[in-house]
Amino acid sequence: MQTNEELLSQIDKMRKEKNAVILAHYYQVPEIQDIADFVGDSLQLSQKAAETNADIIVFAGVHFMAETAKILSPDKKVLLPDLEAGCSLADSCPPDDFKRFIEAHPGHKVVSYINCSAAVKTMSDVICTSSNAKMVVESFPQDEKLIFVPDKNLGAYINGQTGRNMVLWDGSCHVHNQLSDEKVIQLKMQNPDAKLIAHPECRGPVLALAEFIGSTAALLEYTRKDSCKRYIVATEGGIIHQMQKASPDKEFIVVPSDETCSCNDCPYMKMNTVQKLYLCLKNESPEILLDTAVIERAKEPIIRMLEISKAAKLIR
Domain of 181? Predict the structure, then answer.
């Protein structure tokens, strides 16, 4: 049985030999984050998938993320270390049910959070991430009727930020939705000098208590630049690794998912291991395969999102 260090050495060797790039989400285990060519949130990873010159993309994340990489780079071989690494939020929006939902709301444009299946993306007018959701929604005229899917918490937050009244699909991320305002209040009372920072997938009462709300990447950047030395972090615990690397002099307290632990891990994200990453690259499987028609239709709203983000960056 090879040690993690030996496996990581083999992974590093194989990715060079096979011209492979390893993309990892912030919620992966630290060892995978550290060996990845790029670590980021959904928007950043989408941008990297669209830009890469690699022959193979190894996506250390969950299924919808690897699907997005395949949609943006259909000529590349896209691998996912564990095909069972799904997403509770994406699963909360079955395509057939969503099709009926759209039909029940004629005259509405569809804004879909990237945490959805390729099939749902094909029914969307534009995709967004938590980094650019407000920007994407504001790209529509104020009187445009919109459906927001699948995260009701993010949708409600964006409604509040934009003054919209988007129709919200009733879905949520179990990792963020289970964080309670009672636990947050308890942590704030125990740590009065700590700032609460939260991901907008959290429920409204938690967001109302937060000093800063932002995407995973935005939370990381905030803690890097902010002068405070202690933070209560209301999101998946994997981001703490990057926060500690960027700010070793600061303390980060994760809002726990329940009373039995001090962590808040996504079980799907943590299904990817160093062993699975090694086998995935060695065997070049499991591979993400999508129908050409699905790729072509799903790509349109993703490209629109990337264009909106690029335009906003140029304006700034």
Answer: 175-254
